[in-house]
Amino acid sequence: MSNSDQQVSNGFTTTTTTTTSAAQSTREGQGSGAGSGGPAPGLGHSASVPVGGFRTLVVQQTSLERPRETWSKKMDFLLSVIGYAVDLGNVWRFPYICYQNGGGAFLLPYLLMAVFGGVPLFYMELALGQFHRSGCISIWKHICPIFKGIGFAICIIALYIAFYYNTIMAWALYYLLSSFRPVLPWTTCTNSWNTGNCKSYIWNDRNVTWSNSTTSPAQEFYTRHVLQVHRSDGLHHLGSVSWQLALCLLFIFTIVYFSIWKGVKTSGKVVWVTATFPYLVLLVLLIRGATLPGAWRGVVFYLKPDWQKLLSTPVWIDAAAQIFFSLGPGFGVLLAFASYNPFHNNCYKDALVTSSVNCLTSFLSGFVIFTVLGYMAEMRQQDVDAVAKDAGPSLLFIIYAEAIANMPAATFFAIIFFLMIIMLGLDSTFAGLEGVITAMLDEFPHLLAKRREWFVFGLCLMTCFQGGAYVVKLFEEYATGPAVITVVLLEVIAVSWFYGTNRFCNDVYTMLGFYPGWFWRICWFQIIMKLCVCDLRSHVALIYIYWILFCFLKIFGSFPHLRCCRYPVQTCDQVH
């Protein structure tokens, strides 16, 4: 039986053409509950979805909704996703985790976690965003409304990330501005912020010996001049505002605002510079690092396999956590970016290409970092592990900055290095705020969501206090880790158990013309959930510079995680 119905009321126009049997129509009506969502791909698109041996063609157009913008070019989308996925974590986190967990042996669990966890999750989010053409909040109206709180949790996580990611860019900008001088300020011990323990080591000076109490000019420039953490006792006493960092932060947010104020039309053009320039700098630094004395020591230390480490459970947990955080599912960005794609775009190929580029970039960054660490070990006459004891921002702003200062043409390499750090951070900031803006505009069309970055700027000012580094470390360790894993776990449960495996695979077939194979189905609906549960059981203590996170602060650090978990539960009370 064929029928065609059209309703027009209050400016809302819906046209539905259906070819099915009466019995099947009855079954469809019984199976379209609130928890299942609908198969409609989104505004202005038609979908042919297999239902009981027949096909149902649904065409929906709402005149009151704003038109959906799209990427100007396919490369705009690819570069935006690559720029988002390839961030600061690829430069400082992966090399450190790699050597800490067995060197070359770590590549085995890392690749396995990428194949069975990271890439399938990356593919799933691209497919969901492209099919439903919605942000991380509104998309749950189509999937399962009781999980709508996941979208709000994702937006909160994006704000948490903005707390410290933009602050790190402000630090890099301060370093960049300080590099425009004949002598880099972190090369001497004669400055007002230096202490008696400071010793400047020059390559051709062998009379300087290092001890546990010795500090380098780069370390004191970072901790005492830029961060000024010695003036703060911890989170309970942040001190006064560092106005030079506040001005740098304001400048960073000004760049972000004018890069995304017109949506993907402008950010898609900016990433042609911000996503490609870091690769040029990485190549230059790799070539320069390979020519330094002692570079081979760092490479051997980076890749020398310790197969015994693979018997340790934390190594596999670190591999899963690294691939999840590196590829970036659970932050709402992939959903937002994919929602601006053409409906029949091959998101399967996009997922494979961009995730492969991300993993290769992490591996390449290891060579860039460890050739320099080998050089530093040779210069200090120490072992590489004694030099590579710091991870995170300290690796960039102390160890690498000191190595650059001892190179010929130090000013040039310092300028391009800190420019690279800023651009890596900008890509992630563009993506994170675009994810929040897309979600808010989809859910609240009349809300001026593009002013939210200025709200984030106000919140970020707390990281510009003299104790702001503690705030950055707190959110880096606690706000993203367990919260993102929890969001990913709930997202997979919602899609697999409530939306349904077959329905999701039908959506992929509607867009791409082929069904996902059994490998993808097993990964989506079995393996990823187990990986998330195992990762949530891990715990890392937090120690930062002069300050140890006490028990009551560990509870406070878990608050963002618990708050993000609260939203999906609260939403259940709002669905009728």
Automatic annotation (TrEMBL):
Residues 30-41 have a biased composition (Gly residues). Na(+) binds at residues 83, 85-86, 90, 326, 358, 424, 427-428. It comes from the Eukaryota. One of its GO terms (biological process) is amino acid transport. One of its GO terms (cellular component) is neuron projection. The chain crosses the membrane at residues 77-95, 107-128, 149-177, 241-258, 270-296, 316-340, 352-377, 397-424, 454-472, 478-500, 512-529, 541-559. Residues 1-42 are annotated as: Disordered. Keywords: Antiport, Disulfide bond, Membrane, Metal-binding, Sodium, Transmembrane, Transmembrane helix, Transport. Residues 1-12 have a biased composition (Polar residues). It is found in: Membrane. One of its GO terms (molecular function) is serotonin binding. Belongs to the sodium:neurotransmitter symporter (SNF) (TC 2.A.22) family. NCBIfam families: Na_transp. This is Transporter. The lineage of its organism: Eukaryota, Metazoa, Chordata, Craniata, Vertebrata.
